[in-house]
Amino acid sequence: MDQILSLAATNLLSPIILSFALGVAAALARSDLNIPEAVAKGMSIYLLFAIGFKGGVSVADHGIDGMLALSLLAGIVLSAALPLVAFALLQVMGNLSRLDAAAVAAHYGSISIVTFVAATSVLEASGLSSEGYMVAVAAAMEAPAILSALWLISRGGDSRRMDDELLREIMLNGSIVLLVGSFFIGWITGVDGMTKIEAFIVSPFQGVLCLFLLDMGLVAGRGLRSSSGVLTPGVLAFGVVMPVVGATCGLAAGLLLGVSTGGVALFMVLSASASYIAVPAAMRVALPEANPSIYLTLSLGVTFPFNLTLGIPIYVAIASALTGGSP
């Protein structure tokens, strides 16, 4: 417990968390502070490219083995199964329609790449390493959750099919394309490629992440302010309970695979996070009748802050305690 509290305190006082808190506070206070959309988009492109490239370089340096394939398979299974768990929890904790519950569940099977990036920063600060291919696992966990949501809807008598538009939305989503593409660029160019652009993707990374999380705080704060009458206490509680359930599943997967302490922590983070980029875009096409104020506020306004402030330190501490690693 002391280890968890120490990590949580350190994380809460880190620049990235305080930047997010500033954004939330500014939005709740109705400040006119604003990050231009083009700037926010540019920062997200930078972060996705940097994390993907560094992951590819790590895989090139480490080499490919059976553990990579097993980890990818585990990520796909988790992404497909977690929406079923989330949907069942929502039937108990919330009073949502089947359509809205399925849309929310899809978000909790997919992942938040920004939460993943923040977790890698915490691991680096703690002196813990992780497998570079975890970036590929993150990319693999984006789409299966959407298919599970469509299956849940079909079980209720509403036939939603995987048409060309939805398939394109899922597979060619910008975040997935950039993450996977930069991963392969890093893999192909290896350490030599990293040496050439290290000054661009390593040194500025933390500063860009701070500004990006400031913008995320503004978005989350506005969502919380505008949706106070939409979310019931049970649904809000789900936004905290489901990450813990997901992290437990990720913990089991990481321990069964035998990955490093950092790898176990990242499996927990990926399973605990909720998408607010790729899945909302797909839901607009697949389930346009679903209420975005519910699934966006839950994923970005409740689960994202929880993981960022308390979740990540807890996951890292548990992974360290169970694998013998030390933060």
Walk me through this protein's architecture.
The chain has 327 residues and is mainly α. Helices cover 79% and strands 0% of the residues. The chain has helices at 2-12, 15-28, 37-62, 66-93, 98-107, 113-125, 134-140, 144-155, 164-171, 174-201, 205-226, 233-257, 261-272, 278-286, 292-323. Helix 5 packs across helix 15 (292-323), helix 6 packs antiparallel against helix 13 (261-272) and helix 6 packs parallel to helix 15. The protein is globular, with a radius of gyration of 19 Å.
Name the features.
globular
Give the low-pLDDT segments.
none
Distance between the termini: 14 Å
Largest sheet at a glance? Answer: none
What is the general shape?
globular
- Compute the CA-based radius of gyration: 19 Å
Topology pattern, helix = H, strand = E: HHHHHHHHHHHHHHH
Q: Which structural class should the secondary elements be placed in?
A: mainly alpha
Q: How many DSSP H or I helices?
A: 15
Helix share, percent = over 70%
Q: How many extended strands?
A: 0
Q: What is the typical, i.e. mean, pLDDT? A: 85
Strand content: under 5%
